[in-house]
Structures are given as C-alpha cells and as structure tokens.
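Assess the record.
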Amino acid sequence: MPVKIVHGTALSDEQKKDLLHRLARVEGQIRGVQKLIANAAVPADCEGVAQQLAAARKALDRAFVTLLTDAIVTHTAAAANPEQAEKSARNLAALLDKFA
C-alpha cells in the first residue's frame, strides 16, 4: 500500500518521494536476505547473505545521509534570517552527532 505524502515544511514532496523510494528498495533487499537465509543449505551461502546484508546496510546509510542533507538544505533555505539558519543547522548537526 503506497504511503500518503503529507505536504509540510520538514522536507519537500520530491525529497519525501526520493526517501520513500530508497526505503522501498531497502525493504526489498531485506526481503531478499530473508529468503537467502531461509534457503541457505551450505556454508558458502553465508557469503551471499553477508554481501546482501552489507548492500542493504549501505543503502540505509545513504538514505540517512540523504535525509540529513535534504533537511539541511530545506531548513536553512526556509530560515527567515541568518540566526534562524544557524539554529536549524545546529539542531541538524546534533541529530547527526546523536545518530551517526
């Protein structure tokens, strides 16, 4: 079921669509990993599982970086003055510090 995109000021509709598309691809990769694990029969199958897990992790990391990059651009561009832009940038930097 498609997710309804709500218009707001956090991210643009296009930024949200891009992030949702990235996450849908990660979801597909994870489902593929689940199938690989379920069908693993020999020790060599673990290499394929590890490779796909690494790819999914990298894709999720890219989505995280995209989220923060988009937020920085959107929030600083919407700032009414340099002080508000700086405050937004500091808040986003704190998020990066907290979750990266």
Remarks:
- The helical segments are 13-39, 45-77, 82-99.
- The longest helix spans residues 45-77.
- DSSP finds three helices and no strands in the chain.
- The mean pLDDT is 89.
